[in-house]
Design goal:
Layout (H helix, E strand, L loop, with lengths): L20 H4 L1 H14 L4 E2 L11 H4 L5 E7 L5 E5 L11 H10 L3 E7 L1 H8 L9 H21 L4 E5 L19 H11 L10 E5 L10 H10 L4 E5 L5 H8 L6 E7 L9 H12 L7 E5 L14 H19 L4
Helix pairs in contact: 5-6, 5-7, 6-7, 10-11
């Protein structure tokens, strides 16, 4: 029997905002997002990130110590810098999560930027924190506290996003930047440290949107072993050997969510091709411990959606269809 709490039909959290968001208001937009996910039979439901500018905003807008700059980075993300060690300043997502719980009986999900990602991208030498590691550890405590609060509010799946980690699994990885690979693992480990997980609660990590060209097995095992996440959300939309290698290195006691459809292109994947990839995954991982999703969020930056709302809907329908081919109605 399928795991009751595996949340088979998943997505990364961000959805395309409605064109009339400024007219209808954020609350109604969130209600619309919940209704969409219910119609699509998702096994998790998020607020679509509609209340936020981008996938980092829950932290950067709410936690003192960060300053917005005029520059932009990859993907159109506004650059922020840490001017001092961040301090707790109340809930980050919990207020919206509480409203989400009231809107649906489907398992509520919340997505947060990981502390290591924020530290790596906002640390500037000589500008406050003594090191990126120190900055990351301060952020990890804030995010861990938020995870505990989210769980107490009824959120069942919490996802931490770090788009940089998979780049460090290549046989010849690029320079890690402000935070070393080892320090990043130590920081992430602090954030996911939850002493008690109520029934059905999963802490997930999305370590990147695309697999490297090749995977260093030892480094992949170090990644999974260093962060005690229940679920790993892995790219699985290109059919490469590296994607299978990422899955092959995953410990048996960890769940996996396979990002099976490409969230960056409007064309729909062929269902038989997707089923063949799932069959290949089943040869290296027990699919009773698996779920499926798009490869990444559809609008991690609110003003730069990757697809139209209708293209997004078709992709989500395809994910749901694939899940039912794989597991029937055992959700």
């Amino acid at each position: 029997m399928a795991d009751t709490y595996n949340y088979r039909i998943d997505h990364h959290g961000s959805l395309v905002r409605p064109a009339d968001l400024t007219t209808i208001g954020v609350q109604r937009a969130v209600e619309g997002a919940v209704a969409l996910q219910r119609r699509l039979r998702s096994t998790v439901v998020t607020d679509g990130d509609h209340p936020r500018e981008d996938f980092r905003s829950a932290v950067l807008d709410a936690v003192p110590g960060f300053r917005r700059t005029d520059g932009t980075g990859p993907g159109g993300l506004v650059r922020w810098v840490a001017e001092s060690l961040p301090k707790p300043n109340g809930p980050l997502l919990a207020d919206w999560a509480e409203r989400l719980v009231e809107l649906t009986v489907i398992a509520p999900k919340a997505s947060l930027p990981s502390p290591a990602y924020l530290a790596a991208t906002t640390y500037r030498p000589g500008l406050g924190p003594s090191s990126a590691r120190e900055l990351g550890e301060a952020l990890a405590e804030i995010i861990r506290t938020e995870i505990e609060l989210l769980v107490s509010k009824g959120v069942r799946l919490i996802q931490l996003n770090n788009p940089l980690l998979l780049d460090q699994l290549a046989p010849d990885p690029a320079a890690p930047g402000a935070l070393s690979f080892e320090d990043a693992l130590a920081v992430e480990a602090l954030a996911v440290r939850l002493d008690e997980r109520p029934e059905g609660v999963r802490i997930a990590v999305a370590p990147g949107w695309a697999a490297p060209a090749a995977v260093d097995r030892a480094r992949a095992e170090k990644l999974y072993g260093g962060i005690a996440a229940d679920r790993w959300i892995l790219p699985f939309d290109q059919g490469t050997a590296a994607e299978l290698d990422l899955l092959r290195a995953l410990p048996e006691d960890r769940d996996v969510c396979l990002g099976v459809v490409d969230a960056t292109v409007p064309e729909l994947e062929d269902l038989d091709t997707l089923l063949a990839r799932i069959d290949a995954a089943g040869e290296v991982k027990d699919l009773e411990d698996a779920a499926v999703s798009p490869s990444r969020g559809f609008a991690d930056v609110a003003s730069r959606p990757l697809l139209s709302a209708e293209e997004q809907r078709r992709k989500l329908v395809l994910v749901e269809t694939l899940a039912r081919y794989c597991w029937g109605n055992e959700f």
